[in-house]
Amino acid sequence: MAIDRSMDMKRAIAGILVATVALTATAQHRQLEVGSTAPKLEVARWLYGEPVERYRPGRIYLVEFTHMQCIPCREAIPHLTALAKKYRDQLTVVSVYSYFDSDKLEEEAYAASIVRLRERLDTLMEYTIALDTRDAAMNRQWRGGGGFPYAFLIDGQGQVCWQGNVDVAEIERIIQALRAGGFDAKRYGEEGEVFERAYHSLARLRDNQVTDEAMAAVETLRERYPDKALAVDYLKFRLLLQRDPSAASEHLRAVMAARPDFSFVPETEFVLRQYPGLDWRLGVELADRCRAKTLEPQNQAHYLDMKSQIYACNGAFDEAIRSITEAIAIRDSAFGADSEYTRRYHGLLEAYRLAALAEHHPKRLERRLAKAVRARTLSETAARLLRYRLKGVLTEKQLDMLKRYLAEPKPDNSP
Description:
By secondary structure, the chain is of the alpha/beta class. About 55% of the residues lie in helices and about 10% in strands.
């Protein structure tokens, strides 16, 4: 039986318009809410900077939960340092390194890796650093667990004034309001909840649910919350992708032209899924923008990897080869040639070189591919990329060869 969703949509739109009605989506569960009292910072150890034993009247505290293996976390580091320096008279920045449930590292090894990172970055990482307990007790108490980075702004009385992803512009806006006095944390929190519910209600729409009424609701959300414009522009792009990828391209192109600071990690939209009509060159530019925002060599290489895959998925193999070759050079220089990521990158390079032969030298491709399969020298990375992402360049016979090759047991060190 078909489900009539028109009433749900009307209710959602009404909720956005009057900003009082709870919408259909449930906000992400959190332990602390804006307006509540923050607990004491109870960490396993303080690794750098002055420990925060209590909240002091007149000061503002930015407490960030982070992780060593999180790329956005690394990208936030220079921004946190800039905030700490700009508002040093009143702001204390604390990064609490916590754990994913799947982490295997013991506390001593994790602490040592964090200290090495701070020593390497030196003045680029100039704020207080702490380590959560091994059971991530502080992260769970404050926010119920979840991904990274995530931050809280707390006033000198210990009241939570803001929480969210590390949005520097929004954090500065709240800091300045707190410095000016008269900031109403409770009201701000209530308005934020209305926005979040509306945003997630719309973000969960799929395919034929993305109606004209839904797109009108997005525009209303943008008008009502101009300070959230970048988030809403991304939401609009994601919804347009499901309706008309060409229109999504036009929207994204206009936003990027108007806002040089606009970016998001383009992997999901431009690599993991393929949308006919979506201008893949925008994905390349987004990868470049993300790369420009990071100083970390591993992140630089990561975005070059992503850029290479966008090129390869769209048949631009020469450009893919150039991008992944640059990524390999960066990884080799920073971490040495014998690393898991470098071996994987060499697997991508191998796949791109084989795929590049398909257009101009198909017989040479067939010979090289067959030889690599017989000799078992084709890396699993290359085989999988050719089999699943670049299959349009191969014949059915070659795809079947790769299928059988991947089904065979491989050495443990196969990249």
